[in-house]
C-alpha cells in the first residue's frame, strides 16, 4: 500500500459562529511527506450547501501555497465571515479539502460548526457582478444587482443607487425588494448616458446601498467608464485672401500681412489642447506664418478661434502673384480626438506695390523718354546734328556717307543701316 505523501493538522475542529458577530478562524497545517517539492490548495465545503466559485462566507489565506520542500510544512488561515446556510440554526459539518497539484493527491478533514441565532440584523449581501462597466456617449445600460438575505428572517429592503447624476437614471435611483429567509433576488438600474456635449469622458464611481429595518446598511461599489468619442471640426475663413485686403486708387505701401480665421469646434466629450501649423507649397515665394494663440484649450461643446497671420513681401510691379499654403490643426492632448478635415488649403494673392494704372503711366512715360532720347526725335539734342545739314558726300560704292552741319560737326553714316553711326 502506497504511503501518504501529505499530512494535515487542524487547529480547532469544533467551531461556534453567530451570524452578525465576530468572525471565527482556524488554521490548517499541511506537511509535505513526499520526496519532491509540492504545492497545496485548500477548500472548505459545507454539507448540504451548493458549492459555488468564490464562496463568500469564508476567507482563505493564502489561496495557493508556495512550493514546499520535502519534510517542510505550510499553514493556511481560514476565517468564517458569514453563515454558509442562511437561516439555518444548529450544527453542520464542514469538510476541509487539501489538494496537492504535483502529487495529485487529496486529503479531507471533518469539522463541526455550530450556528447560533443571530442577535443583530444581518446586512444583505450585494453583488454587482461586473464592477467596471464600459459605455459610450448616448448609449444605455443596465446595472444588475444581486441581493442575498443571510439572516434567518424575511427582509424588506430599499436599494438605492448613489454617486451618479440623477439625469443618468431616468427610471429612478431606488428599488424595493422583499426576500425570504436565506433567499436571493435580482434587480437592475437603467442608466442612460448623456450625449457627447453633456458628459465628459472619464471614470464615474457609483455605489448601490441596501437599507433595512433598523437602518442596517450594506453597500457594493462599481464604476462606469465613459469612453472618449466625437470629433473636432476645423474650418478656415476666408479661404482666399489678398495683400492689401482692399485695393484703392492710391498704393498702400505698408500693407504686407493677411489674416485668416481658424475656427475649431469640440464636438467630442474630451477637453482638448489644440495648435495649428502652416507650410507653403513648394516652388513658390515663401512668407512668414504665425498662429495666435500658439496653443489653445478647447472645452467640450465650445467653439474657439485662432488667427493665422501671413506676412509676405510684395513685388514692385507686374501682375498679382499667387501663393498657397497648407494649414493643419494638431491635437496635443492624450487621448486625442480625431479632427474632421484636419488640413485645409488657403490661397494668397500678392498685389504689386505699384497699381496697374500707375504701371501704365510709368510705361508710357518710359516709352516717351526712350523716344525723346532716340534718333526718331528730330529735336533730340543727343542724336545727330544739332543744326542744319548743309553738305552730304557718298563714298565710291555708295554704302557710306558723310554729312556736315552748320553746328561745325561731321558724322559718318552707313547707308544700309542708317540707324547706326560709325
3D structure, described in words:
There is one protein chain. The chain is built from one helix and 29 strands. The protein is mostly beta strands. It has four domains: 6-115, Immunoglobulins (Immunoglobulin-like, Sandwich), CATH 2.60.40.10; 125-226, Immunoglobulins (Immunoglobulin-like, Sandwich); 232-350, Immunoglobulin-like; 384-422, no CATH class. Strands 10-16-15-12-13 form a five-stranded mixed sheet, with no helix packed on it. A five-stranded mixed sheet has the order 21-23-19-17-25, with no helix packed on it. Strands 18-26-24-20-22 form a five-stranded mixed sheet, with no helix packed on it. The N and C termini lie far apart (140 Å).
Question: Brief overview, please?
Answer:
With 422 residues, this protein is mostly beta strands. It has one helix spanning 356-373, and strands at residues 6-10, 14-17, 24-32, 40-46, 58-61, 73-80, 90-100, 105-115, 125-127, 132-135, 140-148, 155-162, 174-179, 184-192, 202-211, 217-226, 232-237, 240-243, 257-266, 272-280, 288-292, 295-298, 303-311, 321-331, 339-340, 343-350, 389-394, 400-405, 410-414. It has a five-stranded mixed β-sheet, with no helix packed on it. A five-stranded mixed β-sheet has the order 21-23-19-17-25, with no helix packed on it.
